[in-house]
Model the fold of this input.
Amino acid sequence: MKFSSRLHVGGLAPDVTVDEISRRLAPFGDVVSVDIKLDKFSTEPQQCRGFAFVDLTVSQESEIDRCMSVLNHCRWKGR
Done:
């Protein structure tokens, strides 16, 4: 049985990419999609607003908890 969850990932650097987020979360399950919220008022094109939503599918529900406990409050790309 597979479990799916939509995670809010915050504190992201402005230049983060979908591939970087996918690689960061891949050890915890299958990354189905990454939706980076872009800053429409930025002078830089395609700049992240600091958060994204990630759809993650795992084989055990405990993997979601493990993902959140391991990555919660961790520093990544200087943030």
Remarks:
- The radius of gyration is 13 Å.
